[in-house]
Amino acid sequence: MRTLAAVLGAVSLLLQFTHAQVTLSSLLVENQVAPLGIDVSPRFSWRISSSARSVAQSTYRLTISTVSPGASDIWDSGTLTSAKPYLAPYSGPALVSDTLYFWTVAVTTTAGSASASSNFTTGFLAQSDWGASAWIGKNVTLVPQALMNAFTSASWIWPPAPGQIPPSAPPGDVALRLTYTVPAGKTAASATIVATADDLFTLYANGVLVGSAPNTTDAWMSAQIFKNVDLGAASPLVFAVRATNRPDVSTGGAGPAGLLFALS
């Protein structure tokens, strides 16, 4: 015979289950709340809360509408068996660009059922949606065209070394210097400099550090641009470069080396 305490415990558990409430919150599309501009096939997530213990999801159903929450004029997933309340995939017809969609999820759990709704808006899903649009940005000329022409037509330079077969050179640092005398009656206030070196370089103007190449692989493939370099009205002007040739990755010995430099 069951004891009174066991009966009361069973009644208490039954009452707890009967009065347990299940709610859904944190409705997400691609891990975002009501996102704007979704341009991928969306995935849906939600959070289950309940006053009961050890509540687990049994099934879920998703519906999508352009009319109102709860409607299914676009898609109805049907009831799907799943314990996962996250990243449920969309598998309906292709969505339309720049459109507001309402989505509703209905779940059943071990403690009852619940439903909730949210929305998301699609972005432009096809290149043609952009029409005749063009990229815009600040209208800034980085360097004078004449300077770029001089840079692209320049020849690589490097101090010769005994037994060196250009364009290869031993690994290590070399120093290069350009001295320029400002014409009489003129003052050089600033300069724009474009430079690169295989593999690295540090640039100085009149003994003042201007800048250097980033210490990354193949940094020589992208020129560095230094604008408004202060020359301090000095004459003559002295531009100095400490260039570094790294060892060849295969042999550890000599490898390609060179410096490109142009200024205006």
From TrEMBL:
Pfam families in alphabetical order: Ig_Rha78A_N
Record InterPro entries: Alpha_rhamnosid, Ig-like_fold
Lineage, highest ranks first: Eukaryota, Fungi, Dikarya, Basidiomycota, Agaricomycotina
Keywords tagged on the record: Signal
Signal sequence, start to end: 1-20
The species this protein was found in: Mycena pura
The name this protein goes by in its record: Uncharacterized protein
